[in-house]
Specification:
Protein name: Two-component system, chemotaxis family, response regulator CheV
Low-confidence stretches: 8-15
CATH architecture of the largest domain: Beta Barrel
Oligomer: single chain
Organism: Aquimonas voraii
CATH superfamily of the largest domain: CheA-289, Domain 4
Number of domains: 2
Strand order of the largest sheet: 8-1-2-10-9
Distance between the termini: 56 Å
Pfam families: CheW (PF01584), Response_reg (PF00072)
Keywords: Phosphoprotein
CATH class of the largest domain: Mainly Beta
Strand content: 25-35%
Order of helices and strands: HEEEEEHEEEEEHHEEHEHHEHEHEHE
Structural class: alpha/beta
Mean pLDDT: 87
Helix content: 25-40%
Number of strands: 17
CATH topology of the largest domain: OB fold (Dihydrolipoamide Acetyltransferase, E2P)
């Protein structure tokens, strides 16, 4: 199963930039299907032996030796408080890489990989604001709940890296510098917001590319030049309804938006290269989540605008 899945994951990389989303579908002990972006998946294995960590408790179960590397293993069902989850039935390990870290999630069953048009991937219902979902979609009439694994990792592992003192000593000259942040993960939104606000700018947060594009076009219709209203746009790549690649492409196609400065910022590792970023017209790319790398990219833009000063 692992080799077959990896082969199909490799094939799905061709979807990049075409507003498509490939999901690995799995279950957590019941009939409900869950999904995770295949670009975050390294491999799927039968449940390995685990080495307990001192004082660790569920959902962090311990360490597994995978290809000569020890990785933390989490009980995903317990982490999202899924009522039908059972550790005794969690027979598979989904090894993932995102936010510059590798970790495994125990699940009860792995079903298949499906290819979904991003416009059919929607934000979760408003009532699930405190949930662990980042989006929902349907496949063959089945509801698929896409888990915010960044939130899971942040809650279980914790300890998000902090901005260095050197970067904190940078400030923005002027009180009206705005940055538009586009990301479907609330955890990622807050991390980016923290960096940008520490540098002295204010933020507007939107959860997907389509809402961001509509917002920017609305500004233009009201006679507000978006590239003067915002110093830059920081956008995730993988989002419901419209991904970051498509958002960037649409910005470049619209004469009233085309001069916006766009940074793509993603938790995905090792797939989206500079050539692809340049192809869609983005100005910069930063991998999540290194606060200093993000701050350096933001400060580079502010410096272009003559906004930075050392305090």
């Amino acid at each position: 199963m692992s080799t077959d899945l990896l082969d199909r994951i490799e094939q799905r990389t061709r979807l990049a930039g075409h507003n498509r989303l490939a999901l690995l579908l799995f279950r957590l002990g019941g009939r409900q299907l869950f999904g995770v972006n295949v670009f975050k998946v390294q491999e799927v294995l039968k449940r390995p032996a685990l080495q307990p960590l001192p004082q660790s408790r569920p959902p962090l179960l311990g360490l597994a030796d995978i290809r000569k590397r020890s990785i933390p293993v989490l009980d995903l069902g317990a982490a999202i408080r899924h009522p039908e989850s059972s550790l005794d039935r969690s027979d598979y390990l989904v090894v993932t890489e995102f936010n510059r870290s590798v970790q495994g999630f125990l699940v009860s069953a792995v079903e298949r990989i499906v290819n979904i048009a991003v416009e059919n991937v929607k934000p979760p219902p408003d009532s699930s604001g405190g949930s662990y979902l980042t989006a929902v979609t349907r496949y063959n009439e089945d509801l698929i709940q896409i888990i915010d694994v960044e939130k899971v990792l942040a809650e279980v592992i914790g300890g998000a890296p902090q901005l260095s003192e050197e970067m904190r000593l940078q400030a923005v000259a002027g009180a009206s510098v705005r940055v538009l942040i586009v990301d479907d993960s609330r955890v990622a939104q807050h991390q980016i917001q923290g960096v940008v606000e520490t540098l002295g700018a204010s933020c507007v947060l939107l959860p997907d590319g389509r809402r961001a594009l509509n917002h920017l076009k609305d500004l233009a219709k009201r006679g507000i030049k978006p590239s003067e209203h915002y110093a830059m746009v920081i956008s995730d790549i993988e989002m419901p309804d419209m991904d970051g690649y498509t958002l960037t492409t649409e910005i470049r196609r619209d004469p009233e938006l085309a001069d916006l400065w766009v940074m793509l910022h993603t938790s995905l590792s090792g797939i989206f290269n500079t050539a692809m970023v340049e192809h869609v017209g983005a100005n910069a790319f930063v991998a999540k989540f290194s606060p200093d790398d993000l701050a350096e990219g933001v400060l580079d833009r502010f410096e272009m605008l003559g906004l930075t000063e050392e305090v």
